[in-house]
Fold this protein.
Amino acid sequence: MQKSLEEIQEELKKVLKRKRYQHTVGVRYTAQAMAMCFDEDIEKAGYAGMLHDCAKYLSDEEMLVECRKHHIVCSDTEKIRPSLLHAKLGACYAKEFYGVEDDQVLSGIRWHTTGKPGMSNFEKIIFIADYIEPGRKMIPGMEEIRRAAFCNLDEAMFLILENTLSYLEDTSKSRKDMIDSYTEDAYDFYKELRRRRKGA
Ligand SMILES: [Fe+2]
Ligand SMILES: [Fe+2]
């Protein structure tokens, strides 16, 4: 049976580090506010926001072991950057430890890290809320992204993916190995949508 949001919050407070827990609560409320704005289910947005990083307390090695145990297939990029796996594993834990069966909540958790082309509004909300919650440090472009998050979800997706890819390109030695193909495909998808929107 699905645990209540308050019960889950109490449990996560015990397993997550203080900063991660505070981030989690920030994502919960940001996702709920965005759900109000875009007519999505506010309660489900609370669950997905609350649980999106529920597997993030594991080390890289533990992450790989847990994925093997739960028969989660890992891509080459995920083998190099196991932290990416907390999204797949998070959806799995949400089901197993917190009793979440709802597909919308589970896919919100599943896609919150890489994004993908053609996301639902609910998935976009969790992805964006993760990036903009009030505790996130101010980075160039954040004001614009926060504004877009409550006006145009596709524009916010484009801006975040653009920022993420340029950050990974700046910090990665080998771009090909470090960037998940879903993120690249998502960027191309939301860039094309934007081009059409602007009529260019
Ligand atoms: Fe995450
Ligand atoms: Fe997060």
